[in-house]
Amino acid sequence: MKSHTVVLLAGDGIGPEVMDATVKILEAAKAPLSYVHRLAGQAALDAGKDVLLPEDTITAIKEHHVALKGPCTTPIGGGFSSVNVALRKTLNLYAAVRPVRSLPGVPTRYEGVDLVVVRENTEGLYAGVENKIMDGVVMSMKVATRDACHRISHWAFRYATQRRRKRITVLHKANIMKLSDGLLLEEARKVHSKEYPNIEYRELIIDAAQMRLVMDPSQFDIILCENLYGDIVSDLCAGMVGGLGVSPGANFGEDDAVFEAVHGSAPDIAGQDKANPLALTMSAVMMLNHLADQAEDERCRVAAGKIKAAYGKALLDGQKTRDLGGELGTRDFTQAIIDRLDG
Q: How is residue 332 annotated by DSSP?
């Protein structure tokens, strides 16, 4: 059987290091993959490209339909706009998925966390519609459309059914933003009642929901949010299981999917063998399971299972990077996972 071509976007800062580590693990697990390397972010500018998201990068993803992406730098306040947002808009990657699970060997104040944040990825305040009204006055517009609200609601309920999840909770602020957040509630209710009545459904105002989350995350199964809420909630949930260094992520459209490390590019430790490659490796496991489903290729699922078991064993054995309380550098942690792939 042929291999599956994946577009690799190493990104900025520690991106090349964690990408190299992840590819080594994929190869050691005999994942049936081949790779096309493309540029995005500051790395594209540094290579002489005149844009952050070159056309050949987009063309490659549209051709092969799957990409694995490292972190890309986004300046705060000024500078260029987010490469991540541009990628999602250009490819219409409307569903962001962030699984959050407790890991063996990574103790936190919470145990048994197992939930998924599903985030609408193209609208809301993240649509970036901002205007300067006058000197000292700016306005940001929150954008919501019925089509996008229906699309993400349907995606979330379908995902819940496929993954045998039992409950969807929509987080909102419709008591204040009655039209925009209200539109998401309208569509989620329709999809639930007409197509997926077997899935338990509830709605929570987002501020109260945050209190419930930190008190007892076991109350939640799948959390469905509009764009900005989903970004904030997913990072909060990541903190319950050890942080963004152990949190995978994926962005899905109708045709394409981009799997990514959701942490920052950490330029202060780039090139120092300090980066934790686990988030990108976990995202690669999600990618393999996606390929197994899409291409009906069980080789991908087998490789995904081997990698997941191997990093679980490594963590239980105390083989951890510094951010998780261990002593290993990037290369040694990568090797610790590889050493446990078959045992």
A: H
